[in-house]
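Bench log, entry 3. Co-assembly request; chain sequences pasted below exactly as received.
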Amino acid sequence: MTGTWISTRAWLLMLPLLVVMTAVIGWPLVDTVRLSFTDAKLVGTEGGFVGTANYIKMLGGSNFQRALVTTTWFAVISVAAEMVLGVLAALLLNQQFRGRTALRALMILPWALPTVVNATLWRLIYNPEYGALNAALTQLGLLDSYRSWLGEPGTALAALIVADCWKNFPLVALIALAALQAVPRDITAASLVDGAGPFNRFRFVIMPYLAGPLLVALVLRTIEAFKVFDIVWVMTRGGPANSTRTLSILVYQEAFSFQRAGSGASLALIVTLLVTILAAAYAALLRKAAGAS
Amino acid sequence: MLKSTRNALIGATLMGAGFAGHAQAETTLNALFMAQAAYSEADVRAMTDSFAKANPDIKVNLEFVPYEGLHDKTVLAQGSGGGYDVVLFDVIWPAEYATNNVLLDVTDRITDEMNKGVLPGAWTTVEYDGKRYGMPWILDTKYLFYNKEILEKAGFTEPPKTWEELAEQAKTIKDKGLLESPIAWSWSQAEAAICDYTTLVSAYGGKFLDGGKPAFTAGGGLDALNYMVTSYTSGLTNPNSKEFLEEDVRKVFQNGEAAFALNWTYMYNLANDPKESKVAGKVGVVPAPGAAGKSEVSAVNGSMGLGITTTSKHPEEAWKYIVHMTSQETQNAYAKLSLPIWASSYEDPEVTKGQEELIAAAKRGLAAMYPRPTTPKYQELSTALQQAIQEALLGQTSAEDALKSAAENSGL
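Structure output for the full assembly:
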């Protein structure tokens, strides 16, 4: 009896949230699914039912396949680099040294900047005529002449990845640092007495504490990297020659620039599905990791 | 009985309140403009302030977005039930906006005086299918800017008359070691690249569409892209052009790092301003060249207009505002930034003073303005062409193949 009362009360307490969630997520999602089976335009016509035609057209197009490859490269490399940099930065900031607090505050800065500001800054850095990167590399003798970093398909995606890492590794560092603070001092002290080297100490003493939080960071960053839009839009708009056109840019062009709400919706749902599968795979990993520890 | 009387009274009171309120009501208009150098945000605010002084009962809220966001913002607002009363639109959008019912047809609002006074070529900016969807506001085409000092040093007394001649002059400048890459263009993957391409298409007598189907894969359309590729691979064109927008071109030219640059009207007075530019006083401007045996000059229609959205609840006030913004008085006052749409302004010493060279170029250039294709699917066609231009420049494919895939991807 009390059990049912408690669960009823729990549901009652959650009701306002459920109503809001249904309104702002559930309903638009249902409507997007409905749209994806029509040939609706963004303005004007309602559009008629066209079955799975949008999905077949989108999945079969070379644009989608190319954007999927571009997005995967972007996500894999930038997330991997952010994880490594984040952990290294956290280990460094976990040491006792003067000015540590100031450095921690500084490190959060790139992450606190709006993406558009960050992207604009990096565009200046990469500028082919007066950019800081060209100036620095030329003065160091690593470059004979200024290069067009965002104008070459070979370097544009790499340039975007660097800008994205710069903005997002502080988040990983922050999560890792919080985890490091939880490592009991007596354990690290004991491992020192037992003569464990730095690598072994990291592997067997620190890593068990880091693994869980890092997996959370990994999930967050992968999903975000897979949906990347703003940094690309500001820096290259998908160019040069579409070498940086990610899935989100493709969705945007289809739905808004070309105003095909129907096929745009189907493309958006395909991307959502991909991200959901990724998230589910990670969740399974997380559970396994939790079980192991 | 009593109840109905009471209701009638309440109704009357409310109606009275309504009318009384209406007499002093402020109409608020929302207008969408673009953030740019010619007619800057401050200029548009100043023009709007003078409108507000004359019309105290109308308040205008201004919003500015970069050109790259103008189309999508307009369409998105419309898709979500409106938001703007007045929008700035590019010459390439009336077809799509008319088809999707974004802009009001204002053909009947245009007076005889406007019809007679505005340059005939300017009207094409706002027309689709025989109807007019606004007033032309920014009259613009791309001109050939040249650095007089560099041309002199290279031994040329006259700027080039044809694109071939331009390439020869640029080669001499390069060979003499005056500049590494003398020509600057805006070939970033954006609409800017299409404007440069269209200028060349107009020189080589090309056609974008024929009977609604792509016709740029051969003839003038192909010649134009081949010219771009040759200019790029031979090193006469600044290699960074493929990530430049107009403002980048201006910076390069103002630093004296380009002998030739293709750009809009606005660059003339800025590049001649000693505070802004290292080449002030050395800036020459002529219409973009023609092609030997095909044309005298070349030009793209890069004009923009102001229109009323179909969702606007105040079309009358919106039209009043547009009339003010496009009036000869307003246009003449800001003629140093953007040339007026009114024919008689070109004879007005107030307008021409200090920019005689630009006016002379405008008289020929504006008359030769070539339109980008008029189709509701323009955005798709443009995106496909942008990709083709970049692929050809980067040598990923031949100009011909690039244009063929653009035709396939154009949705036409």
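DSSP finds 17 helices and 14 strands in chain B. The CA atoms of residues 189 and 386 of chain B lie 6 Å apart.
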